[in-house]
UniProtKB/TrEMBL annotation:
Domain HotDog ACOT-type: 7-119
Presence of keyword Repeat: no
PANTHER family assigned: ACYL COENZYME A THIOESTER HYDROLASE, CYTOSOLIC ACYL COENZYME A THIOESTER HYDROLASE
UniProt name for this protein: Acyl-CoA thioesterase
Domain of life (superkingdom): Archaea
Species per Swiss-Prot/TrEMBL record: Halosegnis marinus
Amino acid sequence: MSSARLSDSYTEMTELLLPNDTNNLGRALGGAVLHWMDICAAIAAMRFSGKQCVTASVDHVDFLAPIDLGEVAVIEGYVFNVGRTSIDVRVEVRAEDPKAGESRATTTSFLTFVALDGDGRPTEVPEVACETANEEALRERALEERRAQLEEYADRL
């Protein structure tokens, strides 16, 4: 089985929060944030696998802090785990106030994608290769965060 580097999947997007993506309080609509997260994660999955990828699932999402009108949303994602045809991506969103030079975390989630071949059927993906201690730390952090999130969700049931 081939491998692909975690670093090759790293994707960062920015969005300026404009009125069309805000609620009546001047804060980002949850749906807009989820849309940005899905796009970022899809790009990370495609960069990693070299294949077309489709969203299979989105894990639990908590909106921890708002993104206000005029702030910059920074969306970062990277592949941290794979199955035979599936790709797990960690996505984190931060809000930046460009005037104050401040940043805060707003949400994190895990999305799973399925890689497709030219006929639109699931196809095998490479293993995750971590070539540096930093990459290994990112992968371990994501694995632990997802494990904790799944355990917390199971406890709620």
